[in-house]
TrEMBL record, chain A:
Name of the protein described by the UniProt record: ABC-2 type transport system permease protein
TM region(s), chain numbering: 12-32, 68-91, 122-146, 158-182, 194-218, 238-258
Pfam families: ABC2_membrane_2 (PF12679)
GO cellular component: plasma membrane
Keyword DNA repair among UniProt keywords: no
GO MF annotations in UniProt: ABC-type transporter activity
Superkingdom in the source lineage: Bacteria
Swiss-Prot/TrEMBL keywords: Membrane, Transmembrane, Transmembrane helix
Coiled-coil intervals, chain numbering: none
Organism the protein comes from: Paenibacillus taihuensis
Keyword Protein biosynthesis (UniProt): no
From TrEMBL, chain B:
PANTHER family, alphabetized: ABC TRANSPORTER ATP-BINDING PROTEIN (PTHR42711), ABC TRANSPORTER ATP-BINDING PROTEIN NATA (PTHR42711:SF5)
Keyword tags: ATP-binding, Nucleotide-binding, Transport
Signal peptide extent: none
Protein name, entry field: ABC-2 type transport system ATP-binding protein
Species annotation: Paenibacillus taihuensis
Classification via InterPro entries: AAA+_ATPase (IPR003593), ABC_transporter-like_ATP-bd (IPR003439), ABC_transporter-like_CS (IPR017871), ABC_transporter_ATP-binding (IPR050763), P-loop_NTPase (IPR027417)
């Protein structure tokens, strides 16, 4: 019941975000053939870029000439950044909103445990993130058809995409935990968005500076870095473990806290 | 003796800035309409929220239907209808959606009752919640609470926002529920409506239970505010009259808090030089201050 309700309630936002990400992916991939034709001048332009910038965006290892390289430099950023914003906003609202708008009194008076509330709400977040990623995959596969001739390794692409799903869920779970704790919706949404941008910023710093390279263990953007996954065709198990631990940990902590807290409106 | 529907033992809740409640003990029998009165902020809502496990008791415990309010909250809520003092529902829903949603949690199938109740209360179920006035929201709350025919109704200041006509309809609905054997826990700060509906009342003040008394007794000790208007109120001598709890003069008004026999009052003032008389119910505050402090 609650799951269905939450799903319906967030459906409009899911559709809008899906259309945006699909449009971006299709648009970018449709101009790729043009770009590939001018690969020579493109490479020249890229090599003229400052070393730090190239490192920051993984352009030192990826080439715009291949479809996946182009995907990794241009589109992957959108997938990770927009997707994380979507996931974080959704998750930060889903629990706190009931308390902010005082509708939680209705829900709590129903024969429904707090654990059920949290489980169904997390299930709604999880499903939304999953659907959003299915849209990314489908739009990308359709988009790759524009790049006829270009050789796209789907196994590498799916590896990259699995990293993207995991990182979206990571942000969602952290935002979800905050959502179970904080009382006012506005604070949750802004802190979750701040978290996404700070993590993105960390990933850039980790790429540029050797002193701060330890930040790569902190930022999920670094876990799902296209340059590494595409060039090495490998998704570091270390990162998978970190993300899995964060996701499970945050959701369980949310459960634990929410079933014990006093809920006053 | 049968088991009480609600059994509260030494229930205490202290938190943050709010006063909370301390050592509340009372029980409600099956089929009873039980009033819970006290001024705003006395701890009525805190008690109710603790019973519904929105908040956790600091100490003490309580059972509803013989089940622990914390450990068996879900099973308890299956049989409870709760009407909060302020109604907040999902703005994006229509009234009918909200009521169906509510019924679905209780696995209640007789959805025709939605229309019966809505019709009685003159509530348009096709409207969106966000467009409803305060009074209409309250009606949605009432239907929501009564809909699944719960064994226990918990009503927190239920009449606020309802016009007198609707209040009558509402009390009729409650009487019908009561005749089916429903137990009603009725919180209010309005003495007269509690007197009208309830068998027994618990009086709470500043988080502590002052008294549990039958309405019959409460009526026996009934107090009235009597105001006499006279050009020279000092000339009115009521020293022979027993039952005057408080007497004060302000300008042309002589105010009495009277707890004695009404006939004796009328007889005593019959020959007094007054122009006008006003007899009204004292506020709950006045009762607390002048009656319970004396006891």
């Amino acid at each position: 019941m609650l799951f269905r309700r939450e799903f319906k309630r967030n459906l409009r936002s899911l559709i809008i975000w899906s259309i945006i990400i699909a449009a971006i992916i299709l648009l970018y991939l449709s101009i790729f053939p043009e770009m590939a034709k001018q690969q020579h001048s493109l490479d020249e332009m890229m090599s003229s870029m400052p070393e730090g910038m190239k490192k920051a965006f993984g352009m030192d290892r990826l080439t715009m000439g291949t479809a996946l390289g182009f995907y990794g430099i241009e589109i992957h950023l959108m997938n990770t950044l927009l997707g994380s914003i979507f996931a974080a906003m959704l998750a930060s609202n889903i629990v706190a909103k009931e308390q902010g708008e005082k509708t939680i009194e209705f829900l709590l008076a129903k024969p429904f445990t707090r654990q059920q509330i949290i489980t169904e709400k997390w299930a709604a977040v999880f499903t939304n993130v999953l659907i959003f990623n299915i849209v990314i995959v489908l739009a990308s596969i359709i988009g790759f058809q524009f790049t006829k001739g270009a050789d796209v390794s789907y196994s590498t692409f799916f590896l990259l995409e699995s990293a993207v799903v995991l990182m979206h869920l990571t942000f969602a779970s952290v935002a979800f935990l905050i959502s179970t704790i904080v009382k006012r919706t506005r604070t949750v949404v802004s802190s979750s968005l701040a978290l996404v941008f700070i993590m993105y910023f960390f990933s850039i710093i980790a790429g540029v500076s050797d002193t701060f390279s330890f930040l790569k263990y902190v930022s999920p953007f670094k876990y799902a870095e296209a340059a590494t996954i595409i060039t090495e065709n490998d998704f570091d198990p270390q990162y998978i473990t970190i993300m899995a631990v964060v996701i499970v940990g945050c959701v369980l902590a949310g459960h634990w806290y929410y079933s014990r807290k006093d809920i006053t409106v | 003796m049968t088991q009480p529907i609600v059994d509260i033992k030494q229930l205490t809740k202290t938190y943050g800035k709010s006063r909370g409640i301390s050592n509340i003990t009372f029980s409600i029998e099956e089929g009873e309409v039980f009033g819970f009165i006290g001024p705003n902020g006395a701890g009525k809502s805190t008690t109710i929220r603790t019973l519904l496990n929105f908040i956790f008791p600091t100490s003490g415990n309580a059972t509803i239907f013989g089940k622990d309010i914390v450990k068996q909250a879900k099973a308890i809520r299956q049989q409870i209808g709760y009407l909060p003092s302020e109604i907040f529902y999902y703005d994006d829903m229509k009234v009918i959606d909200l009521l169906r949603y509510s019924a679905s949690f209780h696995h209640y199938k007789n959805l025709g009752r939605i229309h019966e109740l809505s019709e009685r209360l003159d509530l348009d179920t096709t409207r969106k919640i966000e467009d409803l006035s305060f009074g209409n929201r309250k009606k949605v709350g009432i239907v929501q609470a009564l809909l699944h025919e719960p064994k226990l109704l918990i009503l927190d200041e239920p009449t606020g926002g309802l016009d007198p006509l609707m209040q009558n309809t509402f009390f009729e609905l409650l009487k019908e529920e009561r005749s089916k054997g429903t137990t009603i826990f009725f919180s209010s700060h309005i003495l007269s409506e509690v007197q009208k509906m309830c068998d027994r009342v618990a009086i709470i003040k500043e988080g502590a239970l002052i008294k549990v008394e039958s309405v019959e007794n409460l009526l026996k000790n009934n107090l009235k505010n009597v105001t006499l208007t006279a050009s020279n109120p000092a000339a009115i001598n009521l020293s022979a009259l027993s039952g005057v709890i408080k007497q004060e003069t302000a300008g042309t008004h002589l105010k009495l808090l009277y707890g004695g026999d009404m006939k004796k009052l009328v007889a005593a003032i019959a020959d007094a030089p007054f122009n006008d008389i006003l007899i009204e119910e004292p506020s709950l505050e006045e009762i607390f201050i002048h009656y319970y402090e004396k006891e």
